[in-house]
Amino acid sequence: MNRVMDFETELQKVYSVLARIGNLGLLRLLWHCLHFIISLWYFGLHVADTLESYLISAGIFKSYQTLNIHKLHYLAIVVESEDAYQISKVVQLLQWLADIGVRRVCLYDREGILKISRGSILDKLKNVKLFEDVDENESQMDQQLMTIEFVSFSDGKEGLAKAANLLFKEYLKLGGLNREQEEKILTDSHLTEALIAVGFKGPDPDLLLVYGPARCHLGFPAWRIRYTEFVHMGPLMSMKYGLLIKAIYKFTKVRQNYGF
Predict the structure, then answer these.
(1) Are 195 and 65 in contact (CB under 8 A)?
(2) Do the bridges between strand 104-108 and strand 128-130 make them parallel or antiparallel, or are there none, so unpaired?
(3) What is the pTM of this model?
(4) Residue 193, burial from CB neighbour count under 10 angstroms (0-12, 13-18, 19+)
(5) In sequence order, what DSSP letters do the residues of 232-250 get, joined into one string?
(6) Could you say which DSSP state residue 125 is in?
(7) pLDDT exceeds cutoff 80 at 81
(8) 100 with 248: CB under 8 angstroms?
């Protein structure tokens, strides 16, 4: 009798194990099906983007041929650090922007790879100067001149540290007991003035294009992108001229409201 009961117990264990294996197999099958559907969806989007880029580049869509490029005063390009080593791609992207009519560009990568390679980048482009080497009058006189600013994460970190140190010194000056409490409150305008004083307050980009897998600004100085439009462009290796035109065109059609 005990042997029969033991056999039934073992049999129930076997059934339980088989049921678990069956459930796991079903879950794995569902996961593979879901993964296949998502992969198929993204593949379709990639094909659609490629086709649209080709049609825009070929001039099929007439609306994209009339870009109000003057609305784009300053453009920021954020490149993922691994993609930043592809200097030829960066140069090609800058050449496209020059052909479109963009005249003020900020290049950013977190590790500062583009800044290190700025000499070779500038040598491969025509009528291009560093942003800090060009005054406002020169840029206005030469409409074909492109100015490029190179920024990395260390710039933002160093600038914020120097601005904070300056604000701290100013705060100590207001440390007297006879001062009003309101005079000790730090506001956004105080930070802006401090960044200007230490030389780290560059122009605020109107549009920021992100090239890389991440859909974020990757550490671009936050105080410069308070009113900036963001567009994720995908990997730098698969950049497309038509999609660049589309991103700039869509920005020129956006109405931006500041304040209340």
Answers:
(1) no
(2) unpaired
(3) 0.73
(4) middle
(5) EEE-GGG--HHHHHHHHHH
(6) S
(7) yes
(8) yes
Task: Tell me how crowded residue 62 is: count the other CB atoms within 10 A of its CB.
Answer: 7
Q: Can you tell me the distance from the alpha carbon of 163 to that of 199, in angstroms, rounded to the nearest whole number?
A: 9
Length of the chain (residues): 260
Which two structure tokens, joined as six digits, stand for 152?
Answer: 């990395």
Query: Which among 195, 236, 192, 240 has a CA at the least distance from the CA of 214?
Result: 236
Q: How far apart are CA 84 and CA 93, in angstroms?
A: 12
Q: How high is the pLDDT of residue 221?
A: 85
Residue 63, amino acid: S
Q: How far apart are CA 58 and CA 73, in angstroms?
A: 26
Residue type at position 74: Y
Give the integer Cα–Cα distance in Å for 243 and 189.
Answer: 37
- Integer Cα distance of 91 and 100 in angstroms: 14
Instruction: Tell which residue, 185, 178, 211, has the closest CA to residue 78.
Output: 211
**Which range among 4-13, 156-165, 207-216 has the greatest average pLDDT?**
207-216
**pLDDT band per the 50, 70, 90 thresholds, residue 157:** low
Q: What is the pLDDT of residues 32-72, one digit of tens each?
A: 777 778 888 777 777 777 777 777 777 777 778 788 898 99
Q: List all residues 6 or more positions away from 64 whose beta carbon is below 8 Å from its beta carbon.
A: 56, 242, 245, 246, 249
pLDDT at 77: 96
Q: Give the integer Cα–Cα distance in Å for 43 and 34.
A: 14
Query: Residue 255 pLDDT more than 80?
Result: no
Give the 3-state secondary structure of residue 124: coil
3-state SS, residue 208:
strand
Assess contact for 107 and 239: CB atoms under 8 A: no
- Report how far apart, in Å, the C-alpha atoms of 52 and of each of 47, 205, 243 are: 9, 26, 8
